[in-house]
Design goal:
The longest helix has 42 residues. A two-stranded antiparallel sheet has the order 1-2. Helix 5 packs antiparallel against helix 6. The protein has one domain. It has ten helices and two strands, in the order H-H-H-H-H-E-E-H-H-H-H-H. By secondary structure, the chain is mainly α.
Length: 254
């Protein structure tokens, strides 16, 4: 490829659109969107992968005018955000479940800043989120994201992304699935906590001297920790299966 062809208007526009696509992906998808990763590092990664995949770009199929390029850039940003929303909904199953578990254990007020999202989160939810992040890294989910980004260059032409009814319907289904699976993960601890409340209520009726805050709460928290440790492996398997299902759906939708 000659230098004149590389720096032509079409190739320059294609480079900009590909850079916007990678930038939007790294800003939205799990692992790469971690709040502790500096913006300069994310920009450098987007530039590196843009240069790396630039040679495999097909010819640009849009008109090279200001209106078409503006629409194409917005489309690439929407593409990255849409992929990020789909993967984040599958990943945040565990954070939703962690919030429910923290509430049932009485830890809803014990919050800390989540290093991944930068927002306040109950400590149980933060622990489960960080553990699931390590599991995803061990399963090479970050490589899956890069493979999807490389395959999307051929399946979704630059500037040709459009939100379809099937895509919108799946996002609505993924939001519902996040609540359902989150409740399913938190159900063992929720059920035992409710059973413990019933038992403690019966004890307080028969034994008025029973102090729920001094005796009952530590027992309830201890039982919840035991159940959490027993079900931790199954919980991580559910999170990994949710992420794998999300990647399978991405391959069908895009």
């Amino acid at each position: 490829m000659e230098w004149a062809e590389i720096f032509s208007e079409g190739r320059t526009a294609a480079f900009i659109l590909l850079y916007v696509r990678f930038s939007a992906l790294f800003m939205a998808v799990p692992i790469f969107s971690h709040a502790n990763i500096p913006m300069s590092v994310k920009a450098a990664m987007a530039f590196f992968f843009t240069v790396f995949f630039f040679g495999a770009l097909p010819p640009l199929q849009i008109h090279l005018d200001a209106a078409s390029l503006t629409v194409a850039i917005l489309g690439e940003m929407l593409f990255g955000l849409t992929v990020g929303i789909i993967l984040q909904l599958a990943y945040h199953v565990i954070t939703f479940a962690g919030g429910q578990i923290s509430f049932m254990m009485g830890f809803s007020l014990a919050s800390a800043i989540d290093p991944q999202s930068g927002v306040s989160m109950p400590i149980i939810g933060q622990f489960l989120a960080l553990l699931s992040l390590m599991v995803l890294l061990s399963l090479d989910m970050h490589h899956w994201i890069l493979l999807f980004a490389s395959e999307s260059i051929a399946s979704v032409p630059l500037g040709g992304f459009m939100v379809t009814p099937e895509l919108f319907k799946y996002i609505m289904h993924a939001m519902l699935n996040m609540f359902v699976v989150g409740f399913m993960i938190a159900f063992p601890i929720t059920a035992l906590s409710m059973l413990a409340d019933v038992i403690f209520g019966m004890l307080m009726k028969t034994m008025p001297q029973f102090n729920l805050l001094v005796i009952g709460m530590p027992i309830k928290i201890g039982v919840a920790f035991v159940v959490l440790m027993v079900t931790l492996g199954a919980t991580m398997m559910i999170v990994s299966s949710q992420m794998q299902s999300a990647f399978e759906v991405l391959g069908k939708l895009f």
